[in-house]
Design brief:
Layout: E1 7-12, E2 26-33, E3 36-39, E4 43-44, H1 53-63, E5 72-75, H2 80-88, E6 92-95, H3 101-125, E7 130-131, E8 137-141, H4 142-148, H5 154-164, E9 169-174, H6 181-187, E10 190-195, E11 202-208
Parallel strand pairs: 1-5, 5-6, 8-9
Antiparallel strand pairs: 1-2, 2-3, 2-4, 7-8, 9-11, 10-11
């Protein structure tokens, strides 16, 4: 679920300073608007940690009734069972010894950056060979995908396309020829050739055997 980065909850003590979860006496919502961060009135709360998991979970559940779509919490520290409850409930947990409005801006900027990177990663992982202006001719830059996701093998990236998509030719940009090309492409009645395009990467063109 996409987090609302414009609202955050800060756990506080009686002196209105940021506090540990087990020492908090209230929490305050900060909401970002065009005029900057606005602060809610303190909401009294202290969790009884003397009970078991079910008791603590119920205690926190009552607290979360006031959170609406806030899923970002800031405290000096949250440990043990409370941390597990918040984490499993999908909260972003931020810990800091001190608090000021600049901390809210820093957390917000970091979360926006992470969200952008996640979207970029998802877009990259979702890439499949793209058809060129010539019908049936596809191209795939394997080097770009593996630079961002080294855990992705050439088989993971290419085999679904080769098995499921009708094509005439597929150009693959890669740093080296995947060793499985030699035997597995032949077993799939495909062949490949290397095209020299005067750069450090290799351009491998895969076709069906007998199509050239």
């Amino acid at each position: 679920m996409k987090k609302n980065v414009n609202v955050m909850a800060v756990f506080c003590d009686d002196t209105h300073r940021i506090a540990r979860f087990d020492e908090m006496t209230n929490f305050v919502f900060y909401t970002k608007s065009d005029n900057g961060w606005g602060k809610s009135d303190p909401i009294p709360f202290s969790c009884d940690l003397s009970g078991g998991l079910a008791s603590i979970r119920e205690n926190i559940s009552q607290m979360l009734g006031a959170f609406n779509d806030c899923r970002i919490i800031i405290a000096k520290a949250i440990i043990g069972i409370p941390y597990q409850v918040f984490d499993r409930s999908g909260f972003i947990i931020c810990e800091s010894e001190d608090f000021d409005l600049e901390l809210l801006d820093a957390i917000q900027a970091d979360l926006i950056s992470q969200d952008g990177e996640a979207k970029e990663d998802a877009s990259l992982l979702a890439q499949t060979p793209e058809e060129t202006d010539v019908p049936g001719y596809y191209r795939f830059d394997l080097t770009q995908v593996q630079k961002k996701h080294p855990e992705m093998s050439s088989k993971m990236a290419l085999l679904p396309f080769l098995k499921e998509t009708p094509f005439y030719a597929l150009e693959v940009v890669c740093d080296h020829i995947p060793p499985w090309f030699e035997h597995q492409l032949a077993a799939m009645k495909m062949q490949y050739r290397i095209e020299n395009k005067n750069n450090s990467t290799k351009h491998v063109v895969i076709t069906h055997a007998g199509c050239e």
